[in-house]
Design a protein that fits this description.
By secondary structure, the protein is an alpha/beta fold. The protein is about 40% helix and about 20% strand. Keywords: Membrane, Nucleotidyltransferase, Transferase, Transmembrane, Transmembrane helix.
Length: about 250
């Protein structure tokens, strides 16, 4: 590695923040608590994603966004299930509000340059790999924004009264099932969320807000079939099977 590359690597080390959102419920899983705190092979579902993001080179801190009722659960996760300290904050009523709360929590560090990139991840996707999280961070730094996704050959987009939407070459535009973590240039996405709050805009995920309020060239990296979201009880059973089959460990 050249001196210039070593210098750049040193500047980037630890300047990304991981944001993990745990604002869901356990209703569709059939649980009485937030599904993020249900057990998965010895640790809570949330702990898996938190530990994976913590292991990514370049991620210097983690913000864990929870509901007020889940603060005690979150503190248990920090004390007993994760490898480093978490900055635990209370989110909002919606995903958009929770993301904005996390970005505002980081605002001073974003403004100072101490945080240059954010990775925003759903706690309900416990089996994201270290390699995928690292790839998203790298792509976000190279391009300004990045999301992981799986090509979706079985669905197609169509506008009202239109046939299947076509790409610029006349062929059907490829669609992607988007996953998390989604990575973005921190200052730009903070400004975008502030603008969205003023307008009352609420997107489905971070990328939708970025598309609406920024000119960032958002790229996508190939996601992983195992990086699925736990929504129903069968998803948790499948996650347990994947952990057993692949011999995975959290942390």
């Amino acid at each position: 590695m050249t001196q210039a590359r070593r210098s750049r690597s040193a500047r980037l080390r630890g300047r990304a923040a991981g944001i993990v959102l745990a604002g869901g419920s356990g209703t569709r899983v059939g649980a009485g608590i937030n599904k993020a705190f249900l057990p998965l092979s010895g640790r809570s579902i949330a702990a898996w994603g938190l530990n994976t993001l913590a292991s990514v080179e370049g991620v210097g801190l983690l913000v864990f966004v929870v509901r007020p009722d889940d603060l005690e659960h979150a503190r248990f996760v920090e004390a007993r299930e994760t490898d480093g300290p978490l900055e635990i904050i209370v989110g909002g009523e919606t995903r958009q509000e929770s993301e904005l709360a996390a970005l505002r929590h980081l605002a001073d560090r974003i403004d100072s340059g101490a945080v240059d990139t954010v990775l925003i991840h759903d706690a309900a996707r416990p089996l994201v790999s270290h390699g995928l999280a690292s790839a998203v961070l790298h792509a976000a730094r190279e391009n300004g924004g990045a999301v992981p996704g799986i090509p979706a050959a079985d669905i197609a987009a169509a506008g009202p009264g239109q046939s299947l939407r076509e790409g610029p070459d006349g062929r059907r535009a490829p669609l992607v099932r988007v996953q998390t973590p989604q990575g973005f240039h921190a200052a730009t996405i903070l400004d975008a969320y502030e603008a969205a709050a003023r307008d009352g805009f609420s997107g489905t995920d971070t990328a939708s807000c970025a598309e609406e309020y920024t000119d960032l060239p958002v790229t996508w990296v190939r996601g992983e079939e195992t990086n699925f979201k736990i929504t129903y009880a069968q998803d948790l059973l499948l996650a347990q099977d994947v952990v057993s089959a692949l011999g995975l460990r959290s942390g």
